[in-house]
Amino acid sequence: MRSAPTILHLDMDAFFASVEQASKPSLRGKAVVVGGLGPRGVVATASYEARIFGVHSAMPMAQARRRAPNAAYLVPRFALYRSISEQVMGLLRALSPLVEPLSLDEAFVDLEAGGVARDERSARLAGAKLRADIRAVTGLTGSVGLAASKMLAKIASEQAKPDGLVVIEPGTERALLGPLPVRTLPGVGPATGDHLRRAGIHTVDELAEAGEDELVRLLGKAHGHALFAMALARDERPVVAEREAKSVSVEDTYDVDIHDRTRVGTEVRRLADRCVRRLRAAGLSGRTIVLKVRRYDFSTLTRSETLRGPTDDPAVVREAAARLLDSVDTTGGVRLLGVGVSGLADYAQEDLFAQAGGHGDDPPHEEAEAGPAPQPKTPAERRWSAGQDVRHAVHGHGWVQGSGLGRVTVRFETPGSEPGRVKTFLVDDPALEPAEPLPLVSRGSGEGEGAGAA
């Protein structure tokens, strides 16, 4: 372990929900829940105002609505979240060449490797400057933990939430960890936590007192050794700049079980195209195509096919997924479908393009990657999702508050405006069009023009 707290862990505060609040002035300070809005949707992120009501990530959306019926429920806007994440990661990489992203909103940074910190004072200054820079660039807040190891830095950032900075000084680790629940430690999930609780082990101190031999007996050699070391605050894991992706996949859960075999096939092709778009965006290709099917009775089947070499051709992936679907019985209905590609490489083998019946055309038009799959709709009626960006020819930029019965309700406001006016239109109003999100922090004048117009 290091002698100075020069490992930093950043965790953006309620990231998705905070982005939505920053872009929608009328939602600031209010309960906001982001996730799949269908009856089988789950919560991706809840604002701190929504958490007061017991709403949390991974909770079924139906349960969240019961707990916080007056919250704003919005579909995720992943393209916007990714763009803001790139801004944040750019700030981290300006600090050090060793940045280990864990997700869009979370990363470790080795400050010592970047030469910006060598002791507690310089590490604290770097953390404080990072938080200020994030607020200036994105308008959002992030919590920072500083410690001599990755495990402790993550614990520190959790203690710093929301919008804070906590430093764990070397030499104080055991005293800090002792009274904490065992679930605090990395690798202790619900199952391991229950197993330890049945053995009378509830805190990190009790974990250390149990001894290494007892933990190995309870949890197995590798897990037992690792948890005993962590209970003693020993964590030598380095910050790793590149985390190699093992697979790329997409999946959708459907509000209503799909019984029609033709519809199932259509969904699989659509998922294959989405998966290929992710592959190409990452500059990757893969050899193994994987199909995931969860049936009406919650049984989950996985089928895979390995090609002669890596591909990023949509026709190849579509046809492989279709062949895999032929081997799956979907009688009774399907509630979830997924398509993935593993065995990744950073090139594609051109001769594989001939495996598909057609040519390697680009995937069809871009589809939203958030929430459940779109349900069938009549050609005459456009669908509008809660939270979606729109622009009206007269009233300017706004976002969808809700839609139904042939009408859509829009609030016209921008990140830099006051809370805006609400107006309702027919869903096929030609003056209303989907729009791109606006920057959270204005880089020039005129971006808010038209918002809230009467």
TrEMBL record:
Name listed for the protein in its UniProt record: DNA polymerase IV
Catalysis performed (reactions): DNA(n) + a 2'-deoxyribonucleoside 5'-triphosphate = DNA(n+1) + diphosphate
What role does this protein play?
Poorly processive, error-prone DNA polymerase involved in untargeted mutagenesis. Copies undamaged DNA at stalled replication forks, which arise in vivo from mismatched or misaligned primer ends. These misaligned primers can be extended by PolIV. Exhibits no 3'-5' exonuclease (proofreading) activity. May be involved in translesional synthesis, in conjunction with the beta clamp from PolIII.
Query: Mind telling me which HAMAP family this protein's record contains?
Result: DNApol_IV (MF_01113)
Alphabetically sorted, this entry's keywords are: Cytoplasm, DNA damage, DNA repair, DNA replication, DNA-binding, DNA-directed DNA polymerase, Magnesium, Metal-binding, Mutator protein, Nucleotidyltransferase, Transferase
Spell out the Gly residues composition-biased ranges: 445-454
The segment(s) forming the UmuC domain are 7-189
Q: Which GO terms describe its molecular function?
A: DNA-directed DNA polymerase activity
Binding note for cofactor: Binds 2 magnesium ions per subunit.
Specify the signal sequence span: none
**What is the similarity comment for this entry?**
Belongs to the DNA polymerase type-Y family.
Q: Which InterPro entries match?
A: DNA/RNA_pol_sf, DNA_pol_Y-fam_lit_finger_sf, DNA_pol_Y-fam_little_finger, DNA_polymerase-Y, DNApol_IV, Rev_trsase/Diguanyl_cyclase, UmuC
Top-tier EC class:
transferase
Binding of Mg(2+), residues: D11, D105
Give the site residues for Substrate discrimination: F16
Could you say which EC number(s) this protein's record lists? 2.7.7.7
- Write out the catalytic residues in the record: E106
Subcellular location, in the record's words? Cytoplasm
Write down the Pfam families for this protein, in alphabetical order: HHH_5, IMS, IMS_C
Q: Where is this region: Disordered?
A: 354-388, 414-454
The record's listing under Gene3D superfamilies reads:
3.30.70.270, 3.40.1170.60, 5' to 3' exonuclease, C-terminal subdomain (1.10.150.20), DNA polymerase, Y-family, little finger domain (3.30.1490.100)
Q: Residue ranges under compositional bias (Basic and acidic residues)?
A: 359-368, 379-388
Assembly and oligomerization: Monomer.
**Which cofactor is essential here?**
Mg(2+)
